Task: inverse folding
């Protein structure tokens, strides 16, 4: 199979980025009440879209404060090399995130990567000043997430491409069930192991950079399943 028959869908917060951007903004600029929304989301009482919209409405910051904060956000040091290698091999990459488009674009711009296709929630100024609002242009009917990653997978597969998901947490669980292979970090490792999803655990994009050619030539797909004990390391 030619390498160009693969498409990569990559999460941002905690996967490309070193830390979760929205969590860092809430810690610094969030007014009281965002923690309750977080608890409701973790308990399953609300979806991530409702949670995020409510939390964003509680942010109190100027655009200058937002920009200054985002300059302190970093990405995995090996991600630019991974993107360059994927492009060299003719493999497309799309960032699919339940995070904030403005933040993702601004952070990636520092690395010359803001041209990557992006599906994410839209952050916009609101009234009064220093208030913000969230819209979700990539939501889907029946999905409680702001960005429906399953719809992104379906779109990628519609052209006949195989799909690789790179992710780390709960927002990636549903999409992981629908792709052909997963490079998994953190909580996504256990989900893939428990659900029998073809995957390999990674600690970051140094691992992904090494594994990508093996995925494309098929040798990675022929490996035995990762034992449970290894998956949890």
Result:
């Amino acid at each position: 199979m030619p390498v160009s028959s693969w498409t990569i869908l990559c999460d941002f917060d905690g996967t490309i980025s070193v830390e979760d951007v929205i969590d860092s903004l809430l810690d610094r600029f969030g007014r009281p009440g965002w923690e309750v929304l977080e608890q409701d989301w973790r308990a399953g009482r609300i979806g991530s879209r409702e949670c995020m919209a409510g939390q964003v409405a509680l942010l109190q910051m100027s655009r200058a404060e937002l920009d200054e904060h985002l300059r302190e956000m970093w990405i995995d040091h090996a991600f630019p090399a991974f993107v360059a290698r994927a492009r060299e091999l003719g493999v497309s990459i799309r960032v699919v995130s339940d995070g904030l488009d403005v933040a993702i674009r601004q952070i990636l711009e520092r690395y010359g990567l803001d041209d990557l296709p992006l599906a994410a929630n839209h952050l916009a100024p609101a009234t009064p000043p220093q208030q913000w609002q969230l819209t979700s242009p990539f939501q889907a009917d029946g999905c409680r997430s702001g960005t429906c990653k399953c719809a992104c997978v379906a779109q990628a597969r519609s052209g006949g491409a195989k799909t690789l998901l790179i992710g780390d947490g709960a927002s990636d669980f549903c999409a992981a069930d629908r792709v052909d292979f997963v490079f998994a970090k953190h909580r996504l490792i256990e989900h893939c192991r428990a659900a029998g999803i073809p995957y390999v655990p990674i600690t970051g994009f140094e691992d992904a950079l090494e594994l990508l050619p093996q995925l494309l030539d098929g040798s990675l797909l022929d490996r035995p399943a990762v034992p449970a004990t290894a998956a949890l390391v």
In short: The two ends are 32 Å apart (CA to CA). The chain is about 40% helix and 20% strand.
